[in-house]
Amino acid sequence: MSNSIRSDRSLNIKEFVSTSIASIKETVGEKKVLCAMSGGVDSAVAALLVHKAIGKNLTCVFVDHGFMRKSERATVEQVFKSEFDMNLISLDREERFLQKVRGVTDPEKKRKIIGEEFIRVFEEESAKLGKMDFLCQGTIYPDIIESGSDGTALVKSHHNVGGLPENVDFEGIIEPLKELYKDEVRKVGAELGLPDEIVQRQPFPGPGLAVRVIGELTKERLDTLRAADAIFREAVEAAGVDKNVNQYFAVLTSNSSVGVTGGERTYGATIALRAVVTTDFVSAQWARLPYELLDDVSRRITNEVTGVNRVVYDVTSKPPGTIEWE
């Protein structure tokens, strides 16, 4: 696939789908492919493209690394096992990943450790399944840009680009979306017949909440963020503004502050809310959410999530800030 796809914004989606399926068939033949299924739109679209090309020679593996959003694993299993005839293996590896990142606070180290551990899990699963020749990933072009590939400066490593270890036990990596932007990926997903609940899903980083919990990763801190994030996403959707915002999520900061709860002094955590409007995810503007919505979310989080006594809203565009905090 040539670089012309990136410069030509009038990408013919039908042609891209048919060309990609043909290319995957030619590359893979009768060999086996293991797909890193995160449940997000990128890996879902990549998996379905490969599935259309090689059918049952594709096995999708979903790894619950303990950094998923609330109810994420159940959603993935329901959609891909029930609605699509795919081979899907769901693995619970929360304890393993938490052990690997224990005490690590640097975001680049988090990404590298999680990226390598992902590959090791897939290699192990491949050995159990018999020979798996290729690994499929949902890498898209902004991932490559931010990882310092293609002649660009490093912004942050993505687990499926800069996070890959040098020694990967597969014949090759299949990345059918690596020259597409997010909006194009969604169009490909719609063309393939993926339901809106997958096609329009919020972008989610490979390391998951591990890079939305600033500082040390513990199950307690992750559970705190999971609860706050679910409240924010639920409120945005209930208010009907989700169609006007391209990405929105909560971050558990490393800051604690003094507060008052029930007349008593507290020293609790600070949650930051992030929402952006963008077309390509390479640049973005912070979303002007209604004050009433932000007020409701703040009250709910501080009342319902134990240990949180302050909520702030991020009004930084990209650049200079990235969409994710880490």
Give a brief outline of the structure.
The protein is built from eleven helices and nine strands. With 326 residues, the protein is of the alpha/beta class.
Plain-language structure description:
- About 40% of the residues are buried.
- With about 325 residues, the protein is of the alpha/beta class.
- The strands form 2 sheets. A 5-stranded parallel beta sheet has the order 3-2-1-4-5, with helices on both faces. Strands 6, 7, 8 and 9 form a 4-stranded mixed beta sheet that branches.
- Mean pLDDT is about 85; it is low at about 1-10 and about 150-165.
- The longest helix has 23 residues, at about 105-130.
- The protein has 11 helices and 9 strands.
- It has helices spanning about 5, 15-30, 40-55, 70-85, 95-100, 105-130, 140-145, 180-190, 195-200, 220-240, 290-305, and strands at about 35, 60-65, 85-90, 135, 170-175, 245-260, 265-275, 285, 310-315.
- A hairpin with a 7-residue loop joins strand 7 and strand 8.
